[in-house]
Amino acid sequence: MRITSKTQLLCLLGHPVSHSKSPLMHNEQLENLGIDAKYLAFDVLPENLGEAIKGLKSLGYLGANVTIPHKEEAMKYVDNLTDEAKNIGAINTIYIKDGKTYGDNTDGRGFILSLVNDGGFDPKDKIALIIGAGGASKAVATKLLLAETKKIYLYDIDTVKMNSLKEHLMNFGKDTEVITIKKDELNNTAKISELIVNCTPIGMKETDITLIDENCFNNNQMVFDLIYNPEKTKLLQNAEKKGARILNGLGMLVYQGGLSFEKWTNKKPDTKKMFEIIKGV
User: In what order do the strands lie in the sheet with 80-81?
Assistant: First the structure.
């Protein structure tokens, strides 16, 4: 589809964004549905985030996605927040309505859809370990809490963020036990966990450390790494060796992207086709 003076815009705001496959799947669906719009990716430094979000409205954008490391900070710069965004405490989607910017979160729903549909895993009454306490972790942890997970262990090198996430979860008043752990407790906690979720960028680089020893995995576990490039991080490779079921973040990317797409365009995308597009790259 050619670009004209009437072509509308969507974008991804993050730092970095060079690894992202979002433009591929969104642009394919925009063209497939005959929508005169293009989806771009912008590497936005934290100090420029406010200006970038303000510019969306000024330039007439349909909306945007927000990714690492901006999901929590971006909440400050939108005019309104959806109930989902308020519940989670982070946004990954911005849409424009009646001249106002709205912050929403489709990460949590995308995570659960992938976990259940792609992984066949029901988190109810299970023990989960979540690595990371950033914006993506908030979405994952909140949805697991609301899905009646029995116990949630949290680990992050940043203890302030980790304790803040625990407080956020405890405010829901649910029965789920929420426990923060130290680095030297990771391996033992992993051994007793039925679901392990990596919500950090650790694993994107070949030189990245492995946080959990491979002997801590077993065939009764589901190991979910939100990273999708590479397709199999060291974490997933080690878990698979020990018979654990594994999932990367591709399914979550597609599901959350599909929900965002609907917010922007009021049209339902073909998520199966979106998955095929990014899987084939």
Answer: 37-43, 8-14, 63-66, 93-97, 100-104, 80-81
State percent of the chain over pLDDT 90. 94
Residue 14 in contact with residue 43, Cβ under 8 Å? yes
Beta partners for residue 64, in sequence order: 11, 94
**pLDDT per residue over 19-57, tens digit each?**
899 999 999 999 999 999 999 999 999 999 999 999 999
CA distance 17 to 90: 18
Active site residue 71: yes
CA distances from 252 to 71, 86, 226, 227 (A): 16, 20, 8, 10
Distances (CA, A) of 256 to 54, 113, 280: 23, 9, 19
Kindly state the greatest CA–CA separation across the chain: 59
Stated as kind and residue range, the H or E segment containing 254 is helix 250-265
Catalytic residue among 54, 57, 71, 161: 71
Mean pLDDT of 56-69: 94
Respond yes or no on whether the N-terminal peptide bond of residue 16 is cis (omega within 30° of 0): yes
pLDDT confidence tier of residue 206, bands split at 50, 70 and 90: confident
CA separation, residue 133 to residues 58, 72, 201, 222 (Å): 33, 11, 12, 20
| Domains of the chain with CATH codes | 8-105+254-279 (3.40.50.10860), 108-248 (3.40.50.720)
Q: Model confidence over 133-146: pLDDT tens digits?
A: 999 999 999 999 99
CB 193 within 8 A of CB 129: yes
